[in-house]
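Section 5.1 Outputs to date
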Amino acid sequence: MFKLTRTGALAAAAALAPCPAFAHHPGGTGNGSGAGPAITIPATTLEAGHVAAFVAYESIRLGGLGDQDLIAAAGRHEHAHSIGTIESTSFGAAFGVTDDLTVSLRLPYVRRTDIREGAHSHVPGGAALNTVTRRGDTAGFGDATVMGEWRFFNNGATGTEAALLFGVKLPSGETHRRDRAGARFETEFQPGSGSLDAFVGLAGTQRFGAWSFDVNVMYVFVNTGAQRTNLGDRFQYNAAVSYRLIGSIAPRTVAGGPPASYAYLGHTHTHADGTVHRHGPEAAQPAAPQFTLDGVLELNGEWHDRERVAGISNRSSGGNSVYLSPGLRASYANLSGFVSVGVPVVNHINGIQSKPSHRVVGGLALSF
């Protein structure tokens, strides 16, 4: 069976935090024993008893709508808004319950900037007045996510792994942020949603020497939360190819033997009858840590259903976005980090919305 070193374990842990690609609702690292992805969730799990803490940062720059776009939409009685950036800093930890089951917890701090809306009103005499309202920024702790990954298939001889992903997003985030005028922001602009949402998915990993191919899909079942708002179900899909640029690849181990990255201390000799005797300490000791660097190329996509408020669908919400995301992932000893820059190659959004122009994601993980 294939086992991870401590470096590989901590890197796999950070990937367990879902990282949505859709611009208005932002949410990873990989595997240090071999090449691995940055954002795509691999099927590799933590070894039993291993713990990893991680922090991840995501920044999405949106092509904000101009004031004339918002004014024109207001004149048509359409609710349209513009956002400058969406930023999310996530803190979390993961624990290897068994070699094939990992549980993680993630807590994000979310910030949205330059929120503007078109406003329609009537002045005395009945004339229509269409203007732009600059509402400001929002920031606060978002909803916590508890996630499990159960690896149900692990063939060390072929480097093939498959895992089930499952978990819940808790209604723990802030939902009462107010704008410059003191009015409460709609739920779509709040750090938290106020809803309890379940999700389920699958992850797969295939390794060939210095190469790794990883895929994962996940469906999020979104419920109605604060202010009678349902932000819409989400379907996330990711694929990654990665290559070990610097550093060796840890060979797979045979079942029952120590990991290949561990060295036997003592000496071995063979008798005339063919029996092998080992002398000295029996405990395996970890080999000296090495620096590794992986090149990664990913496709990260998300379909987002329309938002509904009090049962009424918002035409200018939801859609489908796909990012082409090159990146790097580095590991040394018990520390691992990654950076990924995504550019949209698919930007099919509904109605009038700010479109994402690019996304930057980075993170660090530390094992214990």
